[in-house]
Amino acid sequence: MKLKTFAAATLAVATVIGMSACGGSGSSSDDKTITFWHNASAGEGRQYWENLAKSFESANPGTKVEVQAIQNEDFAGKLQTAMQDPASGPDVFMSLGGAKTQEMIDAGQVMDLTDKISDTVKTDMKTTLSAATFDGKVYGVPVSVEPGGMWYSKDLFKKAGVSDVPATYEDLLADAKKLKDSGTDAIALGAKDAWPAAHWYYWLVLRECSPEVYDKSVQDHDFSNECWVNAGKKLQELNDLKAFNDGFLTTTAQQGANSSAGLLANHKAAMELMGAWEPGVLKDLTPDQKPMADLGFFAFPEVAGGEGEPGALMGGVTYFCVNPKASQTSIDFVNYMGEKKNQEDYAKAFSTIPASEPARGVVTDESLKQVIEYLDKAPSMQLWMDTALGTNIGNALNAAVVNMLSGQGSPEDIVKAMEDAAQKG
């Protein structure tokens, strides 16, 4: 698989749910003590990082890893504030990805790890390392690869008489109507967090625009091609169908049983558009806090008449960066993340696909196996659009999509919001 325009990918989205956790930070003056920030604020994911820190300390006597779990929706803002002065920021931290990480590199807030990553990382992550590579230099160690797509309840599809997953967007509209008629919400959407709603627009642009137009638009911030407006019109069709859950504008994405993920996990909605972190989120929200038994996955449908590359995916790679003022202990810690056993344990804890190719044999979840199949045959994978476009344009895009869905804007307004943000720089 070619990781196209994927030179700096990561998730700007959650891997797990939970309460916000925060506390003091600071690049430690003690070479053996490091501060570590991640966004796994609950469940097995949070425990994984606690366990990894302890095992690292045991393997490296005298070291201390001070772990801080920060709720995903708060993570970017806290990190950007803390790293305004790297001396007061965390030593090791989850990347923001794409243009956001590039901005931090340009500001001197991320260490160049090109000559510091281990041979294991170089060999086992030869594909996913491109996600953390900027201008030929490596700035992070990956832990997972997470393409997006549609997650659904097989039981609810069967109940509604939907025998096959939709191959086209038109099929999706027809299936959404069947699901509604069966008495269930067709699609769970946590639009309060903005990015889940915008993901629908990202995917439709990917299907509507040709690869050449898409690449040029993202690189040059030129959104004049009609495919950008057409994508908004397609999304409006779904909105007019009332396919989303009631109250989707005030629904969060992952925080509790009433979130959009919770609606899917508890069979109150039939499907959700999310990244490959979804099984890990859902298992913490099911009634028995076990993996969702009837969970299935299918790639985002093609759009009839669209010029997008068939089978192309969108997603990210989660990777961890090091503060440029951090010690060798921090470098050792990110390399430790990349060891095969730790990658296998990561995949189990987060119910996701590890960045390490040799560790992928540990994946047993059938829905994730389906994702790997799509991943292996995909011609390319684009980075999440808001991450690729950077903070200013990405935030304007996400807000504009929500405005349209709330009846306060149009497809043309989405394009204008991005153009205005691009002009402001």
Fold and architecture overview:
- Pfam families: SBP_bac_1.
- InterPro entries: Bact_solute-bd_prot1, SBP.
- This is Sugar ABC transporter substrate-binding protein.
- Residues 1-20 form the signal peptide.
- The protein has 425 residues and is an alpha/beta fold.
- Helices cover 42% and strands 14% of the residues.
- The strands form two sheets. Strands 1, 2, 3, 6, 7, 8, 9, 10 and 11 form a nine-stranded mixed beta sheet that branches.
- It starts with 32 loop residues before the first strand and ends with a helix.
Question: Looking at this structure, what is the CATH superfamily of the largest domain?
Answer: Periplasmic binding protein-like II
Q: How many domains is the backbone divided into?
A: 2
What is the number of helices? 17
| E-strand count | 11
Q: Provide the residue-averaged pLDDT.
A: 91
The CATH topology of the largest domain: D-Maltodextrin-Binding Protein, domain 2
Instruction: Pick out the low-confidence regions.
Output: 1-25
In one word, what is the shape?
globular
Radius of gyration using CA atoms only: 21 Å
As a percent range, the share of helical residues equals 40-55%
Distance between the termini: 33 Å
Main sheet attributes: strand count, strand direction, barrel closure: 9 strands, mixed
Question: Could you say which structural class the secondary elements and strand pairing correspond to?
Answer: alpha/beta
- Level-2 CATH architecture of the largest domain: 3-Layer(aba) Sandwich
- The helix-strand sequence is EHEHEHHEEEHHEHHHHEHEEHHHEHHH
Strand content: 5-15%
CATH domain class name of the largest domain: Alpha Beta
Pfam family, one: SBP_bac_1
InterPro entries: Bact_solute-bd_prot1, SBP
Keywords: Signal
Protein name: Sugar ABC transporter substrate-binding protein
